[in-house]
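Please, structure for the following, as tokens.
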Amino acid sequence: MRLIYKLALDVVVWLGPEADDSNSAIDLIHTLSNSCKSGTDKSLGIALRQNPELLGQGVWLAVSCLLDRTYWHRLWIIQELSMGGGRAPILCGHKTVIWDDFFRAIYTFGKHNIDVFFACIDLERKAAGLREWGLNRNKIIHINDEHRQQAGLENPQFMCLLDLARKSDATDQRDKVYGMLGLMEPAVSTQIDPDYNLPVEEVYVSFAQKYIHGSE
């Protein structure tokens, strides 16, 4: 699968049909990304602190719903996104945003405006009778880090990969290891032969032993 994703002309992310005002969510993501590219993100943050509804009502709730879709919780998306590249299109209904713009909106805009980012989201979630939740932001950041590592732009950080797997949903818990093999260093991955007949505990212990040996 690693080779398939790496050689693919495009890895297309499909979040599902339009729902929960997802069109507004994608539009907001483009707005935030463009503000970062034009250098106006700080001034936009100041304006949002003064008027949280500056960019429209319900748009922040829409973004939080978009990032809470089932897709983002699945373990198998990690390899898909990590190998997909910065130009990978993210589709939702009839709207599209590429990964680089998506990440820029979720992470880069938040670097200067993290307080207003979460305040706007929590304000609208509270008004809708939902718990304060914010964004599935950390996972997006870790996936982008893994994307850069696979592109050779950063050194591998194995613990981030394991943390991503630990916090992701998998029907078979063995895939918390097997689903990550395509992203692991060959010194570790080549020592592991997937065997779904083994108990989960044995898969984890064996992986830990081979990881330690492969890291020596």
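The first helix runs from residue 2 to 7. The chain has two domains: 2-149, 157-214.
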